[in-house]
Specification:
Largest sheet: 6 strands, mixed
Distance between the termini: 22 Å
Number of helices: 8
Helix content: 25-40%
Number of strands: 6
Order of helices and strands: EHEEHHHEHEHHEH
Protein backbone atom coordinates (compact mmCIF):
# COMPACT_ATOMS: atom_id res chain seq x y z
CA UNK A 1 0.00 0.00 0.00
CA UNK A 2 0.92 3.67 -0.24
CA UNK A 3 1.24 5.02 3.28
CA UNK A 4 0.39 8.61 4.03
CA UNK A 5 3.08 10.91 5.46
CA UNK A 6 3.08 11.29 9.23
CA UNK A 7 5.43 11.79 12.17
CA UNK A 8 5.36 8.45 14.00
CA UNK A 9 6.98 7.93 17.40
CA UNK A 10 7.38 4.58 19.16
CA UNK A 11 7.66 4.86 22.97
CA UNK A 12 9.02 1.58 24.28
CA UNK A 13 9.03 0.36 27.88
CA UNK A 14 12.33 -1.36 28.64
CA UNK A 15 12.01 -1.56 32.42
CA UNK A 16 13.51 -4.46 34.36
CA UNK A 17 10.31 -6.52 33.95
CA UNK A 18 11.03 -6.75 30.21
CA UNK A 19 13.52 -9.51 29.50
CA UNK A 20 16.12 -8.90 26.78
CA UNK A 21 14.52 -11.58 24.59
CA UNK A 22 11.12 -9.92 25.01
CA UNK A 23 12.55 -6.55 24.07
CA UNK A 24 13.88 -8.12 20.89
CA UNK A 25 10.30 -9.14 20.07
CA UNK A 26 9.18 -5.54 20.55
CA UNK A 27 11.86 -4.44 18.11
CA UNK A 28 10.57 -7.01 15.58
CA UNK A 29 7.11 -5.47 15.93
CA UNK A 30 8.52 -1.96 15.38
CA UNK A 31 10.53 -3.11 12.37
CA UNK A 32 7.53 -4.79 10.76
CA UNK A 33 5.49 -1.61 11.06
CA UNK A 34 8.36 0.42 9.59
CA UNK A 35 8.76 -2.00 6.68
CA UNK A 36 5.24 -1.18 5.49
CA UNK A 37 5.73 2.61 5.59
CA UNK A 38 6.80 5.03 2.91
CA UNK A 39 9.80 6.42 4.81
CA UNK A 40 11.47 9.63 3.70
CA UNK A 41 11.99 13.33 4.48
CA UNK A 42 8.79 14.29 2.63
CA UNK A 43 6.96 11.10 3.58
CA UNK A 44 6.72 9.28 6.93
CA UNK A 45 9.34 10.01 9.55
CA UNK A 46 9.87 7.63 12.45
CA UNK A 47 11.36 8.14 15.89
CA UNK A 48 11.95 5.78 18.83
CA UNK A 49 12.00 6.71 22.52
CA UNK A 50 13.30 4.10 24.97
CA UNK A 51 12.31 4.46 28.62
CA UNK A 52 12.56 2.92 32.06
CA UNK A 53 13.45 5.14 35.05
CA UNK A 54 15.05 7.47 32.53
CA UNK A 55 14.21 8.36 28.95
CA UNK A 56 16.55 7.89 26.01
CA UNK A 57 15.93 9.35 22.58
CA UNK A 58 17.16 6.45 20.45
CA UNK A 59 16.01 7.72 17.05
CA UNK A 60 14.75 11.26 16.46
CA UNK A 61 12.14 12.02 13.82
CA UNK A 62 14.68 13.94 11.78
CA UNK A 63 17.58 11.47 11.93
CA UNK A 64 17.06 8.77 9.30
CA UNK A 65 15.87 9.63 5.81
CA UNK A 66 15.59 6.09 4.44
CA UNK A 67 14.12 2.81 5.62
CA UNK A 68 17.35 0.78 5.64
CA UNK A 69 19.14 3.19 7.97
CA UNK A 70 16.10 3.38 10.22
CA UNK A 71 15.79 -0.41 10.54
CA UNK A 72 19.49 -0.70 11.31
CA UNK A 73 19.16 1.89 14.09
CA UNK A 74 16.21 0.04 15.62
CA UNK A 75 18.14 -3.24 15.63
CA UNK A 76 20.85 -1.66 17.81
CA UNK A 77 18.57 -0.40 20.60
CA UNK A 78 19.25 -2.00 23.99
CA UNK A 79 16.89 -2.18 27.01
CA UNK A 80 17.55 0.16 29.95
CA UNK A 81 16.30 -2.33 32.61
CA UNK A 82 15.32 -0.04 35.49
CA UNK A 83 11.95 1.40 36.65
CA UNK A 84 8.79 2.35 34.72
CA UNK A 85 8.38 6.12 34.28
CA UNK A 86 5.75 6.14 31.55
CA UNK A 87 4.55 9.66 32.30
CA UNK A 88 8.09 10.96 32.01
CA UNK A 89 8.42 9.32 28.59
CA UNK A 90 5.18 10.90 27.35
CA UNK A 91 6.31 14.31 28.61
CA UNK A 92 9.59 13.80 26.73
CA UNK A 93 7.58 13.10 23.58
CA UNK A 94 5.74 16.40 23.95
CA UNK A 95 8.75 18.53 24.90
CA UNK A 96 11.45 16.99 22.74
CA UNK A 97 10.49 14.32 20.20
CA UNK A 98 7.51 16.21 18.71
CA UNK A 99 9.00 19.66 19.16
CA UNK A 100 9.91 21.60 16.02
CA UNK A 101 13.59 21.05 16.84
CA UNK A 102 13.02 17.32 17.16
CA UNK A 103 10.78 16.73 14.17
CA UNK A 104 11.96 19.36 11.62
CA UNK A 105 8.50 19.83 10.15
CA UNK A 106 6.85 23.02 11.31
CA UNK A 107 3.86 22.78 13.63
CA UNK A 108 2.01 24.84 11.03
CA UNK A 109 2.06 21.79 8.75
CA UNK A 110 -0.89 19.43 8.84
CA UNK A 111 1.24 16.32 9.34
CA UNK A 112 -0.28 13.85 11.76
CA UNK A 113 1.63 13.21 14.97
CA UNK A 114 1.17 9.63 16.18
CA UNK A 115 2.66 7.89 19.22
CA UNK A 116 2.56 4.13 19.85
CA UNK A 117 3.37 3.23 23.46
CA UNK A 118 4.27 -0.34 24.42
CA UNK A 119 4.30 -1.16 28.15
CA UNK A 120 3.97 -4.24 30.34
CA UNK A 121 3.69 -2.88 33.84
CA UNK A 122 2.20 -0.31 36.18
CA UNK A 123 3.83 3.13 35.83
CA UNK A 124 5.61 4.63 38.82
CA UNK A 125 4.44 8.12 37.89
CA UNK A 126 1.26 9.85 36.74
CA UNK A 127 0.18 9.25 33.15
CA UNK A 128 -3.37 10.66 33.14
CA UNK A 129 -2.57 14.37 33.09
CA UNK A 130 0.44 14.19 30.79
CA UNK A 131 -1.43 11.95 28.33
CA UNK A 132 -4.26 14.48 28.24
CA UNK A 133 -1.71 17.20 27.44
CA UNK A 134 -0.29 15.06 24.65
CA UNK A 135 -3.72 14.55 23.10
CA UNK A 136 -4.51 18.27 23.46
CA UNK A 137 -1.26 18.99 21.61
CA UNK A 138 -2.60 16.99 18.67
CA UNK A 139 -0.76 13.72 19.24
CA UNK A 140 -2.82 10.63 18.43
CA UNK A 141 -2.02 8.13 21.19
CA UNK A 142 -2.06 4.34 20.78
CA UNK A 143 -1.42 2.19 23.88
CA UNK A 144 -0.32 -1.45 23.71
CA UNK A 145 -0.32 -3.43 26.95
CA UNK A 146 1.47 -6.71 27.55
CA UNK A 147 1.02 -9.33 30.27
CA UNK A 148 0.25 -7.86 33.69
CA UNK A 149 -0.17 -4.33 32.42
CA UNK A 150 -2.60 -2.06 34.27
CA UNK A 151 -5.52 -1.73 31.85
CA UNK A 152 -6.66 1.54 33.42
CA UNK A 153 -3.28 3.01 32.51
CA UNK A 154 -3.82 2.10 28.85
CA UNK A 155 -7.21 3.82 28.88
CA UNK A 156 -5.68 6.94 30.44
CA UNK A 157 -3.02 7.10 27.73
CA UNK A 158 -5.01 6.33 24.61
CA UNK A 159 -6.95 8.62 22.30
CA UNK A 160 -10.64 8.16 21.63
CA UNK A 161 -12.24 5.90 20.56
CA UNK A 162 -10.49 3.68 23.09
CA UNK A 163 -11.36 0.43 21.31
CA UNK A 164 -9.34 1.59 18.30
CA UNK A 165 -6.42 2.98 20.28
CA UNK A 166 -5.79 0.29 22.91
CA UNK A 167 -4.52 -3.24 22.42
CA UNK A 168 -3.58 -6.05 24.78
CA UNK A 169 -1.50 -9.19 24.29
CA UNK A 170 -0.82 -11.86 26.90
CA UNK A 171 2.90 -11.98 26.20
CA UNK A 172 5.54 -10.41 24.01
CA UNK A 173 5.49 -13.48 21.79
CA UNK A 174 2.17 -12.21 20.38
CA UNK A 175 3.06 -8.55 19.87
CA UNK A 176 4.37 -9.09 16.34
CA UNK A 177 0.81 -9.93 15.25
CA UNK A 178 -0.28 -6.37 16.03
CA UNK A 179 1.96 -5.05 13.26
CA UNK A 180 -0.75 -5.79 10.71
CA UNK A 181 -3.21 -3.50 12.50
CA UNK A 182 -0.83 -0.56 12.25
CA UNK A 183 0.20 -1.39 8.70
CA UNK A 184 -3.46 -1.11 7.74
CA UNK A 185 -4.02 2.00 9.87
CA UNK A 186 -1.26 3.90 8.09
CA UNK A 187 -2.27 2.79 4.60
CA UNK A 188 -4.19 5.21 2.44
CA UNK A 189 -4.38 6.72 -1.01
CA UNK A 190 -3.15 10.28 -1.52
CA UNK A 191 -5.66 12.80 -2.82
CA UNK A 192 -4.54 15.09 -5.71
CA UNK A 193 -3.29 17.88 -3.42
CA UNK A 194 -4.03 16.91 0.15
CA UNK A 195 -3.60 13.60 1.93
CA UNK A 196 -6.81 11.90 2.93
CA UNK A 197 -7.76 11.65 6.55
CA UNK A 198 -6.89 8.32 8.10
CA UNK A 199 -7.86 7.30 11.66
CA UNK A 200 -9.19 10.82 12.22
CA UNK A 201 -5.83 12.57 11.65
CA UNK A 202 -4.99 15.04 8.91
CA UNK A 203 -1.86 14.18 6.98
CA UNK A 204 0.79 16.33 5.31
CA UNK A 205 0.36 18.54 2.36
CA UNK A 206 2.92 17.18 -0.14
CA UNK A 207 4.67 20.55 -0.31
CA UNK A 208 5.70 20.48 3.35
CA UNK A 209 9.28 19.48 4.13
Amino acid sequence: CQTNPTDLLFILDSSRSVRPSEYEQVKVFVSKVIESLNVGPNATRVGVVNYASQVKNEVSLKTHRNKAALLKAVSKIEPLSTGTMTGLAIQFAINVAFSEAGRVRSRTSSCAQVAIIVTDGRPQDNVKDVSARAREAGIEMFAIGVGRVDMNTLRQIASEPLEEHTDYVESYSFIEKLALKFQEAFCGKPAPRYWERVSGAAFCHPDFV
